[in-house]
Amino acid sequence: MPLQIKYGVSTWLWTSPFRTESIQELFPKIAAMGYDAIEIAIEDPSLIDAGAVKKALEQFGLQAIVCGAFGPSRDLTHEDPAVHENCFRYIESCLDLCVAWNTGFFAGPMYSAVGKARMISPEKRKAEWDLAVKNLRIVCEMAADRNLQIALEPLNRFESDLINNIGDVMRLIKDIDHPAAKILLDGFHMNIEEPDIERAIIAAGDQLIHLQVSENYRGAPGTGQTRWDAYKRGLETINYKGVVSIESFTPENKELAGAVCIWRPLAESQDEFAVQGISFLKSWAN
Question: What residue stretches are annotated with the Xylose isomerase-like TIM barrel domain (predicted)?
Answer without folding.
Answer: 29-256
